[in-house]
TrEMBL record:
InterPro entries: ABC_transp_permease, LivM-like
Transmembrane segments annotated in the record for this chain: 45-64, 71-88, 108-131, 178-196, 227-247, 259-285, 315-333
Entry-linked Pfam families: BPD_transp_2 (PF02653)
Primary location recorded for the protein, binned into one broad class: membrane
PANTHER family assigned to the protein according to its UniProt record, in alphabetical order: HIGH-AFFINITY BRANCHED-CHAIN AMINO ACID TRANSPORT PROTEIN BRAE, HIGH-AFFINITY BRANCHED-CHAIN AMINO ACID TRANSPORT SYSTEM PERMEASE
Stated name of the protein: Branched-chain amino acid ABC transporter permease
Membrane topology: Multi-pass membrane protein
Record localization: Cell membrane
Length: 362
């Protein structure tokens, strides 16, 4: 029976993957007609990577960190600086110029993202030494403060010849096709899933459940917390690089605190401690904000103007829908569970209620 179920799940997974590839190929065949849908899918893939990385730290290790925007900024700026074509850099750094050692330094997109992730991981390793000794709200406040410090440093006058200061960076080469960000996101998420299912992942979960008991079992708390923090920051930095490539231009305002709150919303909505929940949450948050845009347009029915339909009404409905979801699914859509075909089929099964007997023997 188990073998039959595994075979069925494999076939269904392959069919789902083929359907997704076919849909993406259809969008790619006419990018001008489907540019809106492509942008939603690409942004969802980027946010899914950050959400899973945040879940690795918050959901699987139990560390409440709010520094994601800062690490995304590091990855984004490193990727942008290394991928902007050398011949157009003078037009980008037109105010203060660019450092001589950086003027001809260039890398392809994916290696640049990896370097950006490594820079974010290095910053996390340094920041983690003091802050990971804190717990709960204190850790959240400390990481949030460091995120703002990073953002301020990137815009500081002393960094003008590297990050272009408050002027930001533009002329960043974009993705060549829709498959590129999806593939990068899939690889990043797959690597995090492998880590979660490894012995290190089990140690992370033990720390989340009871750090005192985990330490008594021989788990080095600081070492594993630091490892989780650094790995999460690495993938967050890679996602920041993906965001820079997606947007084609960035500045420090892109990485304000609200960006971290949006990622946290995705994690909570999908389920703290669920990878597939983070992916579903990313699709719902990014797609929902765009699909409800018709609510911002004036609506006239039978010659009568509906006053509610005006700019800003979309976010009112969007917020109400989020409240409804949170009320009915307090642990998120997936909770701590992962997507399975058996679980999906279980949603459609209806338990047959036994009809009560209306008569008896005389």
């Amino acid at each position: 029976m188990k073998k039959t179920t595994k075979t069925r799940d494999l076939i269904l997974s392959l069919l789902l993957a083929a359907a997704v590839c076919a849909l993406l190929g259809w969008y790619q065949a006419d990018t001008s007609a489907h540019s809106y849908a492509i942008s939603i899918i690409e942004r969802s893939a980027i946010y899914a990577v950050v959400a899973v990385a945040m879940n690795l730290l918050n959901g699987f290790t139990g560390l409440f960190s709010l520094g994601q925007a800062g690490f995304m900024a590091i990855g984004a700026y490193v990727t942008a600086v290394l991928t902007i074509p050398v011949e157009v850099r003078p037009s980008v750094y037109y105010m203060n110029g660019i450092e001589d050692w950086l003027a001809n330094l260039s890398l392809p997109m994916i290696p640049a993202m990896v370097v950006g992730g490594l820079f974010a991981a290095a910053a996390a390793a340094l920041i983690g030494i003091p802050v990971l000794r804190l717990k709960s709200d204190y850790l959240a406040i400390a990481t949030l403060g460091f995120s703002e410090i990073i953002r301020a440093l990137l815009a500081a006058p002393m960094m003008d010849r590297i990050t272009n200061g408050s002027y930001g960076l533009n002329n960043i080469p974009g993705f060549s096709n829709i498959f590129q960000p999806i593939l990068i996101a899939a690889v990043c998420i797959a690597l995090m899933v492998l880590l979660i299912n490894s012995s290190y992942g089990r140690a992370f979960k033990a720390i989340r459940e009871d750090d005192v008991a985990a330490e008594a079992m021989g788990i080095n708390l600081f070492r594993h917390k630091e490892l989780s923090f650094v790995i999460s920051s690495f993938f967050t930095g890679v996602a920041g690089g993906m965001l820079a490539v997606f947007m084609r231009s960035i500045d420090t305002k892109t990485f304000q605190v609200t960006l971290t709150y949006n990622i946290l919303l995705i994690v909570v909505l999908g389920g703290i401690g669920s990878v597939t929940g983070s992916i579903i949450g990313s699709l719902l948050i990014n797609g929902g904000q765009e699909w409800l845009r018709f609510l911002d347009e004036p609506l006239t029915v039978a010659g009568v103007n509906i006053p509610l339909f005006r700019p800003g009404f979309r976010m009112v409905i969007y917020s109400l829908l989020l409240m409804v979801v949170v009320l009915f699914w307090r642990r998120g859509i997936m909770g701590t569970s992962e997507f399975t075909w058996n679980g999906l089929f279980g949603l459609f099964k209806r338990k047959k209620k036994k009809k009560p007997q209306t008569g008896g023997e005389a």
